Amino acid sequence: MLYIVQTALELGFLYALVAMALFLSYRILDIADLTTDGAFVLGAAVSVTVTAAGHPFLAIPAAMVAGACAGFVTAFLQTRLGVPSILAGIVTNTGLYTVNLMVMGWSSNVSLLKDDTIFSLFRTTGIGGKWYETVLAGGVTILMAVLLVLFLGTRLGLSIRATGDNRDMVRASSVNPTFTITVGLCIANALTALSGGMVGQYQRTADINGGTGIVVIGLACLIIGETVLGRRSILKGAIAVIVGSIIYRLIYAIVLYTKVVPVECLKLVTAIIVGLAIAAPTLRSWVAFQKKKAMAGKGA
After folding, report:
1. pTM of the model
2. Minimal CA–CA distance to 190: which of 56, 54, 43?
3. How many Å apart are CA 124 and CA 203, to the nearest integer?
4. What architecture does CATH give domain 2-260?
């Protein structure tokens, strides 16, 4: 059971970076960015390929740069070519499939057999003992959360937050929303690619289909965290995505261990949870309206 908890913590920290990216794009910028699945695989592909070449530490920033480039393409389609945000993400995600194959040498998967990874090298330091993977994954995720919170408190960060609230107001304040959207999406996809890069080295493999459903999982983590901690501030939101990701992975691990739900149905259950959580405000309003309608009928 302890092994299950440890694995859930490790994966929770690693996938929290995806939820953090969605927190920036979906919650702050108010953009439904569907580049996530492709950017995750791109990060894993770049990370594993560079690691196989003997540069595990260089692989992480390389993955982030690649992810930022994917985010730039999506932002360019939206802001310069007038493509709707959802379609822009779909177009970029479709193109990334071929790009990811190219990065992996036209192979559907790449494995790291005896190559050193950042996890194996960190193990040699002795830090964390048997929990070294948890310590490294948690350290990187918490560092990114701190940097994101600090960045969103800067002038540029505040401009990005304002862009998500009201683009017309931002434009009237002599701030270029095209620039803020581009920066925001580049950072969001860099975080997604970082998650993919870390997961790739953690699992010692990159698969072309490894990003399927990642955006739904990220949204599930985001919504679970916000349900538990709320989203009244940027700091609380950043903490919420980490907590939500860990809770999701713990639930996932327990379900697999107890076999309450068939493994084949887990993504369907996740999709239903996310759909209901997003629709919750509308459902609450509908229930309240029906109650008022019923009370009005009794009064008549």
Report:
1. 0.91
2. 43
3. 18
4. Orthogonal Bundle (1.10)
